[in-house]
Write a structure and sequence with these properties.
The protein has 13 helices and no strands. The chain starts with 6 loop residues before the first helix and ends in a 17-residue tail after the last helix. Helix content is about 75%, strand content about 0%. The chain is globular, with a radius of gyration of 19 Å. It has a domain of about 210 residues. By secondary structure, it is mainly alpha-helical.
Length: about 300
């Protein structure tokens, strides 16, 4: 299989970049408030994507499809970030990781309802195994605190899943780059309401924080969302791509070891092994079928 036709490669690149984003975000939050950081991250990504749009001569979306791009920007960037930050401020970090890990499960269920995508019983079992691995990884050393923050984070997981479904729909008509670029632009416009505070905070930061911002904006945002959308456009089942999200907590901790010199604990090792077992079962349980067609899903209402 050629590189450009392999959705696994694009999904893995995305997960690696998003996992590193957690580490660099944690470092950046020492000087920025969460909402300011969210705006600055995409304020950097948007002009970069604008340049690429001119170079690649990307066409503007059709008027009838603008509403889908607005919704994609809203759920994937603006609304998600707001509810995520509200939820994260009221519950423990292990609880945040556990709740957000249900995102792939929600996306799988939405794809089943909207696009009629079917999964075998073995794949559902594999998802449950991966989910349990994330639970061990995030909760074994912490106490789950269930309060209103729990509800906000559930909403954040749903918002991220809706974004994946919208991207799946848009790539039936537009290229992966088009869907990513216009979604991020609309999201950035909405996030600009936080720009006054962000510009005040950026005046007092050290130089290293500029480096973190560039990494978050260029690689963890612009590049990552394009590769994610490419992966979704190349797979026959949305869940085959979103299933990689189960690796995010594990890779994040491994990157923290390298970047922040943190030592992995017993929960990391056990939870990571369980996640890898689930991934192996998911991707190698079914025999490949010949001449399988990529049937487009129905138009969203």
């Amino acid at each position: 299989m050629r590189f450009r036709d392999n959705y696994h490669i694009y999904a893995i690149i995305t997960i690696f970049l998003w996992s590193s984003a957690f580490v660099f975000t944690r470092m950046a939050l020492r000087y920025f408030s969460p909402l300011s950081l969210g705006f600055l991250r995409y304020a950097i990504a948007s002009p970069v994507l604008l340049v690429f749009s001119f170079i690649l001569k990307i066409k503007l979306p059709k008027k009838k499809d603008i509403k889908w791009f607005v919704l994609s920007g809203f759920f994937g960037f603006f609304f998600y970030m707001i509810v995520f930050n509200i939820g994260s401020s009221t519950v423990t970090a292990p609880t945040v990781g556990f709740i957000l890990s249900i995102g792939p499960v929600i996306t799988t269920l939405l794809a089943r309802i909207i696009y009629k995508e079917k999964l075998s019983l073995t794949k559902y079992i594999a998802i449950l195994i991966e989910f349990s691995g994330v639970g061990i990884l995030t909760l074994i050393n912490g106490v789950s605190s269930i309060n209103i923050g729990f509800v906000w984070l559930i909403i954040a997981s749903i918002a991220g899943s809706v974004y994946n479904i919208l991207q799946r729909k848009l790539t039936k008509t537009y290229s992966a780059i088009q869907t990513s670029v216009f979604s991020i632009w609309f999201g950035t416009i909405m996030l600009s309401i936080f720009s006054p505070k962000a510009f005040q905070e950026i005046k007092t930061i050290p130089l290293i924080q500029i480096v973190y911002l560039l990494i978050l904006g260029l690689f963890c945002s612009a590049v990552a969302y394009i590769t994610w959308t490419v992966a979704l456009s190349k797979t026959k089942k949305t869940a085959s791509v979103t299933n990689y999200l189960f690796l995010t907590p594990f890779i994040t901790i491994l990157l923290a070891v390298v970047i922040a010199n943190e030592t992995p604990d017993f929960a990391t090792i056990i939870g990571g092994v369980i996640i890898m077992i689930g991934m192996f079962i998911y991707y190698f349980s079914d025999k490949p079928k010949k001449n399988t067609m990529n049937i487009p899903g129905p138009v969203l209402p």
